[in-house]
Amino acid sequence: MGVGAGLAWLAAGWRSxxxxxxxxxxxxxxxxxLRPVIFAPRPSADLVAVASASSSSGLPSTFxxxxxxxxxxxxxxxxxxxxxxxxxxxxxxLTFAGAAARVVLGGHWTSQMIASVLLGLLVxxxxxxxxDRLLTKKCxx
Length: 141
What we know:
It is built from 5 helices and no strands. The protein is mainly alpha-helical.
């Protein structure tokens, strides 16, 4: 979370950094809310090489939600300019590398990671909008 907040701060200032913990909290709540409702089996050692077998649901992926939400804030709030492009690319690279590692290690199917990261990105958009709206109203007073 610290890396995401730091990147958000560099990308668009301290206000954007505040969206990162909010995005993380929303992702955590969504994960806890969806786990009892959705059960999608994780990869089986019978089908693919699995680093550590797990009987828990692979959808949503907590990892995908968290990475998508935290680094998604950087992707969506970055200002314009060369440094913003670099920070966006770094955030996307970290998200992709983390998601790919979960698939390669057999922790999730590719489809589970894609869905979870996309949901995390939606959470990032929502968290950024909430923080922007709250701080814009406070600063206008």
